[in-house]
Specification:
Elements: E1 2-5, E2 14-20, E3 23-27, H1 32-43, E4 46-47, E5 50-57, E6 60-67, E7 71-72, H2 76-83, E8 87-88, E9 97-99, E10 109-111
Parallel strand pairs: 5-8
Antiparallel strand pairs: 1-2, 2-3, 4-7, 5-6, 6-10, 9-10
């Protein structure tokens, strides 16, 4: 048996996963979203990234950024390493793109706060 903590909502159910006749059996979730989250986490895990990046502005030396969709779990660390090396040189508004299609994930890095 494997246990997964669901992050689909603030409840944070602990979902138990058993394999019976080659099928995943889920228990412990309080809603269908928990089952969907656990299934995805087992087969093709995806994660949202939020991080701070450097800027060239003394009044705001860091900018909060995030992915505009979830990225494959195997690309999370590489994405974070890449973002730790960038510096934003133009003021951005919430939702404006910083990097398009990062690492070929079809996911953009966008500003999560307003620099104005």
């Amino acid at each position: 048996m494997k246990q997964i903590t669901c992050i689909s909502c603030p409840v944070g159910c602990r979902i138990n996963v058993d394999v019976v006749n080659g099928e995943h059996i889920f228990s412990g979730n309080k809603c269908i979203d928990g089952t969907l989250f656990a299934e995805t986490e087992l087969t093709a895990p995806l994660h949202t990234i939020t991080i701070m990046v450097r800027t060239t502005f003394p009044d705001m030396p860091f900018l909060s950024v995030r992915t505009n969709r979830e990225v494959p779990k195997e690309k999370v660390n590489k994405t974070i390493r890449l973002l730790s090396k960038i510096t934003v040189k133009e003021r951005k508004r919430i939702g404006e793109t910083i990097i398009r299609n990062i690492l070929g994930t079809n996911c953009d890095i966008v500003a999560a706060s307003d620099m104005y």
